[in-house]
Design a protein that fits this description.
The chain is of the alpha/beta class. Helix content is 34%, strand content 15%. The protein has nine helices and seven strands. The structure holds S-adenosylmethionine (SAM). Residues 103, 108-111, 134-141, 158-161, 164, 188-189, 207-209, 212 line the site of S-adenosylmethionine.
Length: 284
Amino acid sequence: MTASPGKNLKPAAHAAALACERPAQARCSRRPAAPVRRPGRPAHRAVASRRRSPQAGRPPTCRGSRAASPPEDTIAPDKSVSWAYSEDFLPSDDALLRAADRAAQLGVPAVSPGQGAVLRLVAAALRAGAVAEVGTGTGVSGLWLLRGMAPDGVLTTIDTEAEHQRAAKQTFADAGVRPTRVRTITGRALDVLPRLTDGGYDLVLLDGDPLEAAPTVEHALRLLRPGGVLALAHALHEDRVPDPARRDEVTTALREVARSLRDDDRVVPAMLPAGDGLLLAARV
Ligand SMILES: C[S@@+](CC[C@H](N)C(=O)[O-])C[C@H]1O[C@@H](n2cnc3c(N)ncnc32)[C@H](O)[C@@H]1O
């Protein structure tokens, strides 16, 4: 693949190069306010609320382009409204709600409806016949994926906790998914992934131990066929990843993985703000 512009530059130079490449309307002096958690939202990892600066109510300002400066009253001052609308864009159903309840009871952070909707879309766009998932949980993400995949597609899902996988099987049964469509493997991702077939998967979702994200990404890239998609759930880790002041182990690991995928010639990456972040990367 041809390296994208700025690929071999140091971070500061890379940022400057990217700024020069972006269309004028994207070169804003400030990012929009991050989404905040709505009271009473369902039990997925919601985005934490944050204190807002005096500037936070204003729209982002862009210089040097009329196209980049829409009238102030056309921009919602608080992006959380759009975030919440996007999360609730698709109606839920009994099977998903029950799966989310099981997740809450077991203390498992499931993917959000917005993340699930994107995963289903990607699976459908790929007509995915083979999907691998790390982190079965109670089957919330698995059900979204199965609903997008080809009708006879098989989800291979890995989790260390047999109890979680029992709950997931209940989720799939509730939703009428044929048992032959799900291959459940109990074990650690780093023990199981090496046994899966190179290039044999259309989509790989990583939603297990974030501290193992870097080595699991490497396995995922090996498993994906060209054009297949890697998805890393919770990639913004409740708004911590974009905040340089946050330096805890999980945040640092996820930030590092995001940076490394962004600069990796083997993939075409995008960071989506769905839920608390969904990092997608298409295998070249
Ligand atoms: C965030 S939850 C997954 C939620 C699930 N994807 C969903 O949306 O319903 C993380 C899951 O990963 C499992 N897990 C943690 N460490 C793991 C590892 N090293 N290998 C495999 N699974 C792991 C946990 O037991 C837990 O069920």
